[in-house]
Amino acid sequence: MNKYFQGIMWSLLVSTNSWSGTPIFTVNPNVTGQSQLVQGQTGTAIYTVTNTSNRNLTNIGLVNLPTGVTYIPNAGYQYCNSTFNLNAGQECLIKVAINSNISGNVQGGPKVCFSATQPVYCSQPLQVNQLSTQITPGPISSSCQDNISNFNYELTQTFDSSVIDSGTIQSWGPGRNQLLLSPSNPNLTSCPTTNLSNTAGISWMQNRVIAAEDFWVKQKLNYCHHHVPDFATPAISNGTPRASITSGGGFCSTATDIMPGSAYYNQPVRWNYSGTGSETSNNWLNNSAMWYGVDCSDFTSFIYNFAFGIQFNSDTGYQAGQATNGSQDNLTPNGQTTLNQLQSFSNTNPNSPAGVLVCKNGQTEQELSQCGGFGTDGYFSVFLGSSTRPTPSNITPAMLNLLQPGDLIFLGFAGSDGNNPTSMVTHVITWTGKTVGYGANNINPSQIAPESICPNNWQPQIGDWVIIDSHYQGADYRVFSSCFYQNNIWGVRRVIGYMASF
């Protein structure tokens, strides 16, 4: 309908209406929509639409329904069609369904227009009678809950981005492939959530990412600079037999005992202990598992890919949010300014950091803008302001209680002699939210790995916080000791609830 004809029709409707300037429709509620729905429920609302003009109107319809609202035409006697006609003074019923499986609430409408395809004039119920439904999180489905640790579908997929002759692989091996959640039997695609109010969905994701890490810990794969855990270091790498490799691309740890200074020096390394048998380096070499594995940031990146199909950069600094051009290698969360800001996460940028930075009060920088503002030392970090000297006392036991399972903790180190101090991110670990103990939600002391960097205090004590990382002899559970982990926290990033590619 062209604008000239629209204008004539509008003038005709107003001039022929029984009271000029009033709506040509009324939309009045018969069954008011539910004010609150739990996710998974379906609501219903019914309205009477009346043609209050003195003209017969055709091709009337509903337009711009809120997300989650569906029109149900021909719902029964006296109900309107998908598009309908009303003579002057005539009325019919419209019925809409409200689907609660959405992010956010339902607000506004339904809007009835003449015409449905080229609206000239529209009416809605009075504001007090418009759709207004609050969606609250509901319990996770039994299919999701029963398959937190089900990775069968992921294991059928190719981890590598391409198939390459192993004889030509150099350095860190092939890139990773993006994995997918199971679409059927069971269908897990709707289990993850980015809706922070859906506490059941967030909890499911936290449990699943820890289950994914536990799965790979129990594979007893050694530490290697590989993007994916099923790639083996070539027998000859850059012309060097792999048994002779001690550094550089393709390196796998061959350490067989705890570092000097430890009471356990010269005793066999526990090698990702499974709870049975003797697991020495001899066992490791014999089953060839030591030539498979991933380093710290490749492991954290792979785990989120394996658990949800979430992709973010596997470089440690980029993953933390430092710029990819190297200009921010010494920038800390509390050292940011409006002119020198860490990178923001993106679901589409392959160089994106992982999720969002966490504030010292447990909120994120998205919930509390810039963690209270630049220059306030509001981030979860031992580095205060622009200083590159750590202040370990800034991390308190109360702050650790605010961390959530799956949070990524990035570590930086400062020079101790005052010369050219640096806070470059060099390591990343995963917070489990679990402690050492014998309960169902604890990590048994026998599962705690040795720590080469803290030779005197790696032995687990009941109640110690437990983290997972991949270094030394591989991805494993370790106690959150102060000498290496807590005293060097560069920052914390939260992925769950913020990034999504599922």
Strand content: 15-25%
Number of helices: 8
- Care to count the β-strands? 19
**Count of all domains:** 2
Structural class of the secondary structure composition?
A: alpha+beta
Helix content: 10-25%
Order of helices and strands: HEEEEEEEEEEEHHHEEHHHEHEEEEE
Average pLDDT for all residues: 83
What is the approximate shape? elongated
- Poorly predicted runs are 1-20, 165-169, 415-421
The rounded Rg comes to: 30 Å
Biggest sheet descriptor: 6 strands, antiparallel
Kindly report the spatial arrangement of strands forming the biggest sheet: 14-19-15-16-17-18
How widely separated are the two ends? 42 Å
Short note summarizing the structure:
With 502 residues, the chain is α+β, with helices and mostly antiparallel strands. It contains 8 helices and 19 strands. The protein has 2 domains: 3-136, Sandwich (Immunoglobulin-like), CATH 2.60.40.10; 236-494, no CATH class.
What does this structure look like?
With 502 residues, the protein is α+β, with helices and mostly antiparallel strands. It has 2 domains: 134 residues, Immunoglobulin-like (Sandwich); 259 residues, no CATH class. It is 14% helix and 19% strand. The chain contains 8 helices and 19 strands. A 6-stranded antiparallel beta sheet has the order 14-19-15-16-17-18. A 4-stranded antiparallel beta sheet has the order 1-3-7-5, with no helix packed on it. A 4-stranded antiparallel beta sheet has the order 6-4-9-10, with no helix packed on it. The protein starts with a helix and ends in an 8-residue tail after the last strand.
